[in-house]
């Protein structure tokens, strides 16, 4: 019985130390990454969605490089007439 109690305590200690070590290894700043959005719709809801995604990603990680590729009807966002 004592041996079983010792093994349970040892396992709990190992799990606790491992969890604390893993939490200390977590980076505090997100890594920069690159994102490309494609916009092929002239629907204003889709256009607003792309703009919202860009602002949300930028607010979380300003080092992210983002591009929007527009073609077809997606050009209505930037070209008039």
Percent of residues in beta strands? 5-15%
**Oligomer state of the chains in this structure:** single chain
- pLDDT below 50 for ≥5 consecutive residues: which ranges? none
- How many strands, which pairing sense, and closed or not: the largest β-sheet? 2 strands, parallel
Number of helices: 2
In angstroms, what separates the terminal alpha carbons? 83 Å
What value does the average pLDDT take? 84
Molecular structure report:
The chain is an alpha+beta fold and 81 residues long. 49% of the residues lie in helices and 15% in strands. It is built from 2 helices and 2 strands, in the order αβαβ. A two-stranded parallel sheet has the order 1-2. β1 (34-39), α2 (44-60) and β2 (65-70) form a beta-alpha-beta unit. The mean pLDDT is 84.
Task: Give the topology.
Blueprint: H1 2-24, E1 34-39, H2 44-60, E2 65-70
Parallel strand pairs: 1-2
């Amino acid at each position: 019985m004592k041996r079983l109690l010792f093994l349970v305590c040892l396992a709990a200690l190992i799990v606790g130390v491992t969890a604390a070590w893993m939490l200390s290894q977590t980076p505090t700043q997100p890594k920069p990454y690159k994102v490309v959005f494609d916009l092929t719709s002239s629907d204003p809801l889709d256009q607003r969605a792309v703009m919202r995604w860009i602002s949300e990603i930028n607010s979380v990680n300003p080092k992210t490089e983002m591009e929007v590729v527009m073609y077809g009807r997606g050009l209505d966002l930037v070209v008039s007439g």
